UniProtKB/TrEMBL annotation:
It comes from Halorubrum yunnanense. NCBIfam families: PRK05761.1-4 (NF004418). This is DNA-directed DNA polymerase. Coiled coil: none annotated. Transmembrane segments: none annotated. Its EC number is 2.7.7.7.
Length: 731
């Protein structure tokens, strides 16, 4: 089992494993990363019925591959050549492929690029090219990726440094496990080294990976012998970059590694942020992606690692730069296929006695129960019309994707069943594991439509949506026939309330019948004493994802109102909302629950606005948190975020697209960088009117379901006057 590993060059790899007292280091002296080259498949989906490849010649290779064989022979990047038989797709038999053993991890891509330059661009397909470094070694040497925690628990050390700071002179602001370790850069280096020597951590959790080169730069400047890893030095694995995913701009910071220790960068670790260290370790064991790589991996990369392992179990090689043209569809089929999940327009207003029902892991379970996989949808060997509305066939042979997701679905279901009876550390561990698995299951559907997915396919995406639409519509019909009124529904969730003048069949029986018919559990999520569905901001139509409601008290007997009120889409759920505005909205929700009175809610707002105007609000509670989508010079509008970016650049803390800027608005009507102050600056004032508008919008979200919009709220506030009790008594 593996803690981490280091590529040393010249075919040597050091593998670090846990021992009772520390770690053990074993060097593999002659490791040769391998890729395979094959003739481009006649059918990119691996369906049956395509023509056979060119008859084999020497060693079973085609003439084209034998001609290619002499091309890399003798190149410096190539250590050895051979022939091995593997399956190029999930639906084809094993065929002889050219095996290329390379001299280093960097040489794999070099050889693959040269192969693509030989002959026609589409003549050959390269396989097993772009695996991550540690995953590749674990796969090719059958080394377990997870550290053996039966030996001992992992030891962790956390280094935190302000994101806006840079330079050696700022090092005194660094903390080790939340404690300052020095008032000068020299003292900080000594303090960090002492903590490392005493604790001997296996994992370094850093607030930003930029700390790694900064510490070594400082050590060089002061002539100090400094070691962050278990051996001297560090390696830069990748530079910083900006990317776009589903329309959102993200920033990936530079990545570093040190010998013998895992570095987890909090600024670049989705799974660490969402599920903590225990969730990460649970996912390492399930995905086979080593901790050092899972720490920075996206959901798609972890899912791909699982798919790669399933492919290898089936002796299928993994294509590089997979290219799958969409199969031909008629115009009518294309129109029917190009749709998302079903949504029902919510009934705007406040509804009493509402029940929320959810299909358990709907999309993953559709994949599993309907055998949806890239090689099974429109397989070419079955003539059935299995997908509703699209008439796609689904092969009777078991697909690989259900095999990947099935264990995850079962594991999360089992974990969720254990959580209610657990407490303390055990509950925390279970929740972390459930959260980590949840994100894989949530994303598996969308990943099938991702153009760069190794084994994705748009027809899978379309088939899953088609089944989901039918399932939700059938559930709606069954519930309405049983005397329930559907007030909202979206993709896998449905909200119902008793229909007036009708007798209702028990929900337990109805959901049980629907579950049996569909083959996917329709679960009781929660009951609301009342639920409110909001209209769109500038329309009377219902907003699909903006609602709130009070869950029944017996379901939350030991918690306060904050836990009992469930909110979605309103300001308190938005990351850019200042903490003070969120608090105003929370208080407004509490009063709305107690009184159902718009006037009483507006009285709350009036009191909170008085605090704001009297400058009694801590500016730290007014920080706006926005993600940057472009470089500061690429914006055409002078927004407050642009003002903050300009100010950050002036302060020497410029931000790249995808990073987050945090600021307080001090004068929204001013020009340039003077409109805001950055979070770490001296915050001694704020723009009252700007934050007042934000508080009014937050309260409008609470009152819009009962017909009070901004105009009614401001009119009520204008008609009220503030008086002291003494003034009222002396009238």
């Amino acid at each position: 089992m593996t803690l981490t590993l280091d590529y040393l060059g010249d075919g040597r790899v050091a593998v670090w494993t846990l021992t009772p007292d520390g770690v053990a280091r074993e060097v593999h002296d002659d490791y040769r990363p391998t890729l395979f080259v094959g003739d481009a498949p006649n059918d990119l989906y691996g369906r049956t019925g395509g023509p056979e490849p060119t008859p084999p010649s020497r060693d079973g290779l085609s003439d084209a591959l034998n001609e290619l064989r002499s091309f890399p022979d003798g190149q410096q990047a190539v250590a050895d050549l051979g022939v091995e038989s593997h399956r190029q797709t999930f639906r084809t038999d094993a065929r002889p492929l050219l095996r290329v053993d390379t001299t280093s991890i960097e040489a794999v891509r070099t050889v693959a690029k040269r192969v693509h330059q030989f002959d026609q661009p589409d003549a050959f397909t390269c396989y097993n090219v772009d695996f991550t470094r540690q995953l590749r070694f674990c796969l090719e040497t059958d080394t377990p990726a997870a550290p053996d925690r039966s030996v001992r628990d992992l030891r962790t050390l956390r280094l935190e440094f302000p994101s806006h700071e840079s330079g050696i002179e700022s090092l005194p602001q660094l903390t080790v496990d939340s404690e300052r370790v020095g008032s000068s850069p020299h003292e900080v280096l000594d303090g960090v080294q002492t903590a490392i020597d005493e604790r001997d951590p296996d994992v370094l959790v850093v607030s930003t990976a930029d700390l790694v080169p900064l510490l070594f730069e400082a050590a060089d400047a002061y002539g100090i012998d400094f070691t962050l890893g278990r051996r001297p030095g560090y390696t830069k694995l990748a530079g910083e970059s900006t990317y776009t995913s589903y329309g959102n701009v993200g920033h990936s910071p530079a990545r570093y590694t040190v010998p013998g220790r895992v570095i987890l960068d909090e600024s670049n670790s989705f799974f660490y942020h969402e599920s903590g260290p225990e969730g990460c370790l649970d996912l390492v064991a399930r995905s086979g992606l080593p901790l050092a790589e899972l720490g920075w991996a996206s959901i798609g990369r972890v899912l791909t690692a699982m798919q790669i392992r399933e492919a290898r179990k089936r002796d299928v090689v993994v294509p590089w730069r997979a290219w799958r043209p969409e199969l031909f569809k008629s115009a009518s089929t294309l129109d029917a296929a190009d749709r998302g999940g079903t949504t029902f327009a919510p009934h705007v207003g406040v509804h009493e006695d509402v029940y929320e029902l959810d299909f358990a892991s709907l999309y993953p379970n559709i994949i599993r129960t309907r055998n949806i996989s890239p090689e099974t949808v429109r397989c070419g060997c079955c003539e059935t019309a299995d997908v509703p509305g699209l008439d796609y066939s689904i092969c009777e042979h078991d697909g690989y994707l259900p095999e990947v997701l099935g264990p995850l679905i079962d594991a999360r279901s089992e974990i969720k069943g254990q959580i209610p009876d657990a407490d303390g550390d055990e509950r925390e561990l279970l929740e972390a594991a459930s959260s980590a698995i949840k994100w894989i299951l949530v994303s598996c559907f969308g990943y099938q439509g991702f153009s760069n997915a190794k084994f994705g396919r748009i027809e899978c995406h379309e088939a899953i949506n088609a089944f989901a639409r039918e399932i939700l519509l059938d559930a709606k019909t069954a519930l309405e026939d049983a005397g329930w009124r559907v007030v909202h529904g979206i993709v896998d969730s449905i909200w119902v309330t008793p229909a007036d003048g009708r007798e209702q069949r028990p929900l337990e029986k109805v959901t049980s019948e629907v579950s049996g018919e569909v083959g996917i559990e329709l679960e009781y999520e929660c009951a609301f004493e009342w639920a409110a569905f909001c209209p769109m901001r500038n329309s009377e139509s219902g907003a699909l994802t903006r609602y709130f409601g009070k869950r029944r008290g017996e379901e939350y007997p030991e918690t306060g109102l904050g836990d009992a009120i469930k909110t979605r889409g309103i300001e308190g759920r938005q990351r850019s909302t200042p903490a003070w505005v969120e608090d105003v909205q929370s208080e407004a929700l509490r009063v709305f629950d107690e009184t159902r009175s718009p006037e009483a809610v507006c009285d709350v707002l009036r009191r909170r606005l008085r605090e704001l105007r009297e400058r009694k609000v801590d500016p730290g509670a007014l920080v706006v948190d926005n993600r940057v989508s472009k470089d500061v010079d690429d914006y055409s509008m002078e927004t407050l975020t642009v003002a903050a970016l300009k100010r950050a650049r002036i302060e020497g803390a410029g931000l790249a697209p995808g990073q987050t800027v945090r600021y307080v608005v001090v004068d929204a009507d001013a020009r340039g960088a003077s409109r805001v102050r950055l979070e770490y600056e001296d915050l001694n004032r704020y723009d009252v009117e700007w934050y007042e508008d934000g508080a009014v919008r937050a309260v409008e979200s609470v009152l819009a379901p009962v017909g009070w919009r901004e105009g009614e709220i401001r009119q009520y506030l204008t008609g009220m006057s503030d008086e002291t009790l003494e003034g009222f008594m002396n009238r």
